Automatic annotation (TrEMBL):
Gene Ontology MF annotations: nuclease activity
Organism listed in the record: Granulicella arctica
Occurrences of domain BFN (ranges): 14-145
Pfam families with a match to the protein in the record: BFN_dom
Name under which the protein is recorded: BFN domain-containing protein
InterPro entries per record: BFN_sf (IPR036104), Bi_nuclease_dom (IPR003729)
PROSITE patterns with a match to the protein in the record: BFN
Length: 173
């Protein structure tokens, strides 16, 4: 667990995103969370694990389970400790792996916890808090996609950008 004790204010380098959809990658058959800039048409696909996609899908669909799932337990634990998740930030892209921070406050102290973006997003949905992506991550992701020699990567990005609302809800648990 990595803790940061920095300011949690929204930095000008952070871009607020919303979940545009959750779907299956037609090439790899892996789940993708598609984030969209709230102020533009810029999108960021993040491939996630099946279990994390299910946790996100459950919350997007407002489905309840008979017992708390892991992310529900984490929310209940934080709430029981009088802590609050204020925002999550996809903070870094290194070696094709995204990294995130969960910004929390407890007892007047602000901390940032290192997390996988899928877990951070699942918690953000449960806390109804904003999701941000660092501008450098967006730029790096765009450069990686543009410089990729793979035709399927370019085709996938174009396919993602042209999806309609019906296509975005095609993830099945």
């Amino acid at each position: 667990m990595k803790l940061h004790a920095e300011s949690e204010a929204v930095a000008p380098t952070e871009v607020e995103m919303q979940i545009r959809g959750l779907m299956m990658d037609p090439v790899t058959n892996m789940p993708i969370v598609v984030l969209k800039d709230v102020a533009s048409d810029l999108i960021l696909p993040i491939w996630v694990g099946v279990f994390e996609a299910n946790a996100i899908a459950l919350e997007l669909e407002k489905s309840t389970t008979p017992r708390p799932m892991t992310h529900d337990l984490l929310k209940n634990l934080a709430h029981g400790l009088n802590a609050r998740v204020n925002k999550v930030v996809v903070s870094e892209l290194r070696d094709d792996t995204f990294f995130a921070l969960i910004w929390m406050e407890q007892g007047g102290e602000v901390i940032a916890l290192d997390a996988r973006p899928s877990d951070a997003i699942a918690l953000a949905l449960r806390w109804d808090c904003p999701i941000y992506v660092h501008r450098d991550v967006l730029n790096h992701a765009r450069q990686s996609a543009d410089s990729s020699p793979s035709v399927s990567t370019d085709e996938l990005r174009q396919w993602l950008e042209n999806l309609n609302d019906d296509d975005m809800g095609r993830y099945k648990m």
